[in-house]
């Protein structure tokens, strides 16, 4: 097979979509949308093999349109989703988003919320990877994905995963209280699931950091006391010890104690990039400096 043969398939698909014309059209020569879609699909596969993702994507859109006319919404959505994947491979992010959203609309109308949620999460990840896109765009789609997953009984795990991304991105755009409340809710949910209980301490640690980022030592201290009460194992965990130490240092505006607590924790368990960024914001609240105002990461 070749690109030339793919072009021939497209011509044949166009004929199938139009149907017979002229004197003999009444003899059952109407459009064959399903056959046209199959030809478009096969042509798209050839473009994929040739790494021509632009033409593959555009041909998959045509296949989807044919299945829409044929009356098969599920196949129409599938082809639009595949078109989105191909546009993404072609670095046409806007077009990928457009056709992904077409697929989501069809899936959601059919009650296939899990399928719609997966695509919305893909869009969110794509926006997050794009260095030219602000976090707000990824945040918007993670929220939409979470809402979609929430409507599916069997999508509790992906719903939580998306909400945690919403929390992290909310923090990046300065919505610290919103982020704290999400982390708290996910921590409480984890406590009631024997498979997820261990992860609760991570959520509570992040929630506490968020209250400190919000610049409220009183609320932060009260919140941490509540976390310890809700999860008795938290106090003796490394995350719990770190949270108590940095909250006390924050309340006392003791930068040295704050940094010492971080170094103690980081010497055993490396702080990830997100926590490091947020903890730098907390330190900046405690001791504003020209260095940190220049967005330098410094926890020394």
CATH architecture level-2 label of the domain at 195-300 = Alpha Horseshoe
Distance between the termini: 62 Å
- Strand fraction: under 5%
CATH superfamily of the domain at 195-300: Tetratricopeptide repeat domain
CATH class of the domain at 195-300, anyone? Mainly Alpha
Stretches with pLDDT under 50, minimum 5 residues: 290-297
The 3D shape can be described as: elongated
**Can you give the helix content as a percent range?**
over 70%
Mean pLDDT: 93
Order of helices and strands: HHHHHHHHHHHHHHH
Q: How is the CATH topology of the domain at 195-300 named? A: Serine Threonine Protein Phosphatase 5, Tetratricopeptide repeat
Largest sheet: none
What is the oligomeric state here? Answer: single chain
Helices, by number, come to: 15
Work out the number of β strands.
0
Global Rg:
26 Å
Structural class: mainly alpha
Name its key features.
single chain; 300 residues; mainly alpha; Serine Threonine Protein Phosphatase 5, Tetratricopeptide repeat; 15 helices; 0% strand; elongated
């Amino acid at each position: 097979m070749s690109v030339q043969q793919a072009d021939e398939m497209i011509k044949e698909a166009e004929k199938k979509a139009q149907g017979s014309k002229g004197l003999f059209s009444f003899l059952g020569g109407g459009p064959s949308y399903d056959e046209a879609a199959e030809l478009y699909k096969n042509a798209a596969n050839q473009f994929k093999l040739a790494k021509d993702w632009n033409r593959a994507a555009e041909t998959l859109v045509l296949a989807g349109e044919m299945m829409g006319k044929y009356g098969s919404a599920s196949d129409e959505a599938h082809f639009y989703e595949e078109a989105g994947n191909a546009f993404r491979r072609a670095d046409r992010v806007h077009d990928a988003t457009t056709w992904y959203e077409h697929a989501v609309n069809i899936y959601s109308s059919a009650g296939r919320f899990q399928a719609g949620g997966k695509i919305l999460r893909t869009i969110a990840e794509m926006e997050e990877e794009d260095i030219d896109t602000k976090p707000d765009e990824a945040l918007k789609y993670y929220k939409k994905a979470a809402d979609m997953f929430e409507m599916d009984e069997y999508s509790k795990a992906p719903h939580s995963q998306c909400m945690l991304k919403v929390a992290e991105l909310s923090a990046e755009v300065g919505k610290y209280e919103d982020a704290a409340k999400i982390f708290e809710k996910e921590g409480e949910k984890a406590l009631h699931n024997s498979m997820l209980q261990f992860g609760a301490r991570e959520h509570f640690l992040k929630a506490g950091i968020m209250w400190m980022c919000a610049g409220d030592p009183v609320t932060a201290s009260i919140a941490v006391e509540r976390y310890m009460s809700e999860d008795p194992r938290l106090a003796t965990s490394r995350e719990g010890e770190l949270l108590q130490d940095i909250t006390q240092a924050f309340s006392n505006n003791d930068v040295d104690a704050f940094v010492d607590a971080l170094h103690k924790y980081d010497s055993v368990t490396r702080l990830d990039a997100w926590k490091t960024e947020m903890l730098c914001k907390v330190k900046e609240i405690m001791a504003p400096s020209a260095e940190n105002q220049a967005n330098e990461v410094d926890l020394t």
